[in-house]
Amino acid sequence: MRIRQRFEQQLEDLRGDVLRMGSMVEHELHEAMVALETLDPERARSVIALDSEVNQTRFDIEEKCFGLIVTQQPAARDLRSIVTVMNMIIDLERMGDQAKGIAKVVLHMVQSPDIPRPAELRQMGIQVARMLNQTMTAYAHDNIELAHAVAEQDDEVDALYAHVFGQIMAHMASAGTPAKIEATYEALRAARELERFGDLATNLAERVIYMVTGRFQEMNIDREDLIG
Question: Domain spanning 3-217 has what CATH number?
């Protein structure tokens, strides 16, 4: 196999590694959401264990990236592909951390199983999982149109988070005891983890667009930043 062909195969293998890591994070989120819906502490603990595997995968891929940079000295599009991978795996690791955060919430909530969990929490979980899946598809096929579509969905996640926030604040106001207020706050923590997961999915979509076009476009802009 010629040197160029071998290098192109290594780049494709690297893409496969990232897609597998994306699948791992998607599975971790799924398990965290099931644990949240069922308040299953054992499932929550399994999510925490899964997160360690995600973290190790990030380090393994990162090592491969450094190896390619040192040995191949890539330029232009090839270097952009490797840099994209290095940024994506950081965000994927952080998304795993958000899933782990939900699992930790579950371990607190099992102590107060009567605490309300707004229906929008489940909707948020479905939406951000879809965003991650679509981003990985966009990455697999260099599909910038799909990457743009993923970023546009983040507003829906933010709207769901606002609904959850309002419901939980209202419940906390009538919770009574400090212990109940603290327990109710755990549901808000879960919503915040999901909202951040959606933000990171948007980051991934931005990286895909950069890899394909060579232009970095920030799409996850806080509306308050546009005021004034």
Answer: 1.20.58.220
The label of the residue with tokens 């160029």 reads: 4
List, as own/partner pairs, every contact residues 82-90 make where C-beta atoms lie below 8 angstroms and the sequence separation is at least 24, other chains included.
Answer: 82/11, 82/14, 84/207, 84/208, 84/210, 84/211, 85/14, 85/15, 85/18, 85/61, 86/62, 87/207, 88/18, 88/139, 88/204, 88/207, 89/18, 89/21, 89/57, 89/58, 89/61, 89/62, 90/58
% helix, strand, coil for the chain, step of 5: 85, 0, 15
Question: Residue 150 CB: number of other CB atoms within 10 A?
Answer: 27
Cβ neighbours for 184, distance < 8 A, ≥ 6 positions apart: 115, 116, 168, 171, 172, 175
* Angstrom distances, CA of residue 73 to CA of 29, 62, 147, 202: 36, 16, 28, 29
Q: How far is C-alpha 55 from the geometric centre of its chain's CA atoms?
A: 13
**How far, in Å, are 59, 67, 142 from residue 7 at the CA level?**
21, 12, 19
Per-residue model confidence as pLDDT tens digits over 22-33: 999 999 999 999
Q: Give the tens place of pLDDT for each residue, 59-105.
A: 999 999 999 999 888 888 899 999 999 999 999 999 999 999 999 99
* Distance between start and end Cα atoms, the chain: 58
In one-letter notation, the amino acid at residue 47 is V
**Domain parsing of the chain, residue ranges:** 3-217
